[in-house]
Amino acid sequence: MCGIVGAVAQRDVADILVEGLKRLEYRGYDSAGVAITNNNNELLTAKRLGKVQELAQALIETPLTGGTGIAHTRWATHGAPSEVNAHPHVSNSTIAVVHNGIIENHEALRSRLQGLGYEFLSQTDTEVITHLVHHELKSSDSLLSAVQKTVKQLEGAYGTVVMDSRDKDNLIVARSGSPLVIGYGVGENFIASDIMALLPVTRKFSYLEEGDVAQISRFNVSVFDSNGKPVEREAKEANVSHDSGDKGEYRHYMLKETYEQPTAIRNTLDGRLVAGKLDINTFGEGADEIFKNVEHVQIIACGTSYHSGMVARYWLEELAGVSCNIEIASEFRYRKSFVPKNSLLVTISQSGETADTLAALRLAKEIGYQSSLVICNVPGSSLVRESDLAFMTKAGAEIGVASTKAFTTQLVGLLMMTLAIGKHHGMSDEKQAEITQSLMSLPAKLDEVLALASSIEDLAEDFADKHHALFLGRGDQYPIAMEGALKLKEISYIHAEAYAAGELKHGPLALIDAEMPVIVVAPKNDLIEKLKSNVEEVRARGGLMYVFADSDAHFASDDTMKVIDVPICDDIIAPIVYTLPLQLLSYYVAIIKGTDVDQPRNLAKSVTVE
Ligand code: HGA
Questions:
Q1: How far apart are CA 382 and CA 258, in angstroms?
Q2: Residues whose CB falls within 8 Å of the CB of residue 592, separated by 6 or more in sequence, listed in order
Q3: Residue 77 Cβ contacting ligand 1 at under 6 Å
Q4: Is the dihedral of CA 412, 416, 421, 423 positive or negative?
Q5: Angle between helix 574-593 and helix 429-450 axes, rounded to 10 deg
Q6: Of 120, 129, 273, 517, whose CA is between 20 and 30 Å from 343?
Q7: Which of 179, 185, 180, 170 is nearest to 215 (CA)?
Q8: Where does the SIS domain lie (predicted)?
């Protein structure tokens, strides 16, 4: 959430900052701003409500020149989206600050600073940092020391960059709870909340650790830990493709990313199933030993990742014979939970920076989890660095706020984890071979599913005037129904709920009428006859159904039901296969509704605040 970019260079940096913000815009897009120190040590700022493009236009009309600057694209937590609340915030026309995160003691700090004569212009929590730095600078010999004193007084989470126009050679950056990465150039250096922002200018990065404060100048980067001790943070070359931020021939990132799923899954499988056998080292050093000793798995995740974890619970208990619980990170982290013996904590996060999930991992270490594994799409992210084991999905950059390929590659990772654990818990060689075969067949199967796009597009018309929708599934398709409902909510703003179909008669049947489309996920499996009974319950009450099913399930379209013929696939991979038609349905409904598909209102990618 919120994007930060900063640069110290000889050349003018405005274009670099704006390009960086564009690349981070999917993380927050209610307003954007930039502050630049020019050659005369003057602080120049521009802010705009709305998308980065508004800011870019403002800078075309009134260019800001200078080699040191900071910029921000905001996802508001404190104070409405507005120009005045947009970052950077400024104190005394000299100190400029951008910030990701939440300063929890902002009220107390604000009153103290007001008592000292500081005037607050915004409603944000961030502005306290700005004035506090200015105040501390009065009794400090450098900006670095003022920032070090400031962060000691902050409670909550921050990734922050501070610039003082009287000292245009340095930026001071600090991290606690919100990621920051330093980018190394030649005679110029950079800072950002994500490497994506800096790919056009460098490939060499180092990550700040929790509590670090760093001084960045053109030729030097000095990092200090939370005790003020100088530390080295190793710089590495990033292995990411430069143009992953390009939409190509597609109208939206979400559509591009939906179509990329066969390739993303091929990449995720590649090199990991050697001669039909899973290479355990893919999870990291010591994985085999850890999996051998696991007696219980606790999965922690949020949002879409939570749904992939729910599918994994079906797989782990049924295929690997290991008990599994799953919980939402923001709940887990704030309750006292029982830790069964030899428990593995599995976190799932596309970005690896999800604040609640990261906090849950840190808590799990304190309360006695034997070991931890993360399923993640971003190498070097906080969850990857802090977990014992990591399975890296190879989805590539996911820009659309509504997750598509990150979700399906997470499922692939979780199925591989099931294999790896199951192998030590009595899973037969035949079963292992069967799962491996199914995984290998997946990319081609998904290509077949994507061919359904135009028939799904035709269905979308039916949803144009609807305000609600109900999704039904059973067994491991229940979480897929939940994911389908979440996608529809996120991008079309239609209220959608998912139910385990057996729950219908316990309440939701009361909602059924012609205005409530019911989407049913119905592959032929052991539960199909049970599901058919639920379908009849809906039909008997005049409900209109959209049934995603294979030909073996024997559904037929009629006045009350439209059947979408999904290719037959193995049961094990059916949750992955049935995800795609639901993604496409949401996408085409959103197109008809005219919403902002890639950047839906009120949302942002990579939820780095609580
Ligand atoms: N609390 C700050 C920054 C919000 C943020 O980091 N969002 O991801 C604000 O509201 O401006």
A1: 26
A2: 460, 461, 463, 464
A3: yes
A4: positive
A5: 20
A6: 273
A7: 170
A8: 287-427, 459-600
Residue 486 is encoded by which pair of tokens?
A: 């979440």
Tell me which residues are annotated as active site.
2, 605
| CA–CA distances in Å: residue 542 to residues 459, 499, 510, 531, 559 | 19, 18, 11, 17, 10
| Tokens, residue 462 | 């039916």
Mutate to test the pocket of ligand 1, among 100, 122, 605 (most ligand atoms within 8 A of CB): 100
Query: Cβ distance 603 to 493 under 8 Å?
Result: no
Cα 77 from chain centroid (whole Å): 17
Q: Is the peptide bond before 88 cis (omega within 30 degrees of 0)?
A: yes
Tens of pLDDT along 240-292? 654 566 788 999 999 999 999 999 999 999 999 877 789 999 999 999 999 99
Q: Is the CB of 122 under 6 A from ligand 1?
A: no
How many angstroms does the Cα of residue 221 sit away from the middle of ligand 1? 26
> Candidates 2, 5, 121, 353: which one to mutate for ligand 1, based on the most atoms within 8 Å of Cβ?
2
Residue 161: its H or E element: strand 156-164
- The dihedral through the CA atoms of 163, 167, 171, 174 has a sign that is negative
CA distance 445 to 581: 12
Residue 37, classed as helix, strand or coil, is strand
pLDDT at 204: 95
Using CA atoms, how far apart are residues 306 and 542, in angstroms rounded to an integer?
33
For residue 17, the CA-to-ligand 1 centroid distance in Å is 19
Burial class (CB in 10 A: 0-12, 13-18, 19+), 102: buried
CA 47/CA 523 separation, integer angstroms = 51
- The three-state secondary structure class of 425 is coil
Pocket flag, ligand 1, residue 23 (CB < 6 Å) = no
So what's the pLDDT on residue 25?
86
Q: Is the pLDDT of residue 87 over 70?
A: yes
Average pLDDT of the chain to the nearest whole number: 95
pLDDT tens sequence across 312-357: 999 999 999 999 999 999 999 999 999 999 999 999 999 999 999 9
Backbone angles phi, psi at 593, to 5 degrees: -75, -15
Query: What does the pLDDT look like over 142-201, one tens digit per residue?
Result: 999 999 999 999 999 999 999 999 999 999 999 998 899 999 999 999 999 999 999 999
Taking the CB of residue 596, how many other CB atoms lie within 10 A of it?
A: 14
Checking 109-118 for CB contacts under 8 A at 24+ apart, the result is 109/153, 109/154, 118/91
Q: Which residue has the tokens 């559904």?
A: 555
CB within 8 A of 354, min separation 6: which ones? Answer: 301, 302, 305, 329, 383, 606, 607, 608
**% residues pLDDT > 70 (the chain):** 99
C-alpha–C-alpha distance, residues 355 and 413, integer Å: 21
Spatial separation of the C-alpha atoms in residues 415 and 263, rounded to whole Å: 17
pTM score, two decimals?
0.85
- 3 CA distance to ligand 1 centroid (A)? 10
Sign of the dihedral through C-alpha 457, 458, 459, 460: positive
Q: How far is the CA of 482 from the centre of ligand 1 (A)?
A: 29
Query: Which tokens is 332 given?
Result: 């887990």
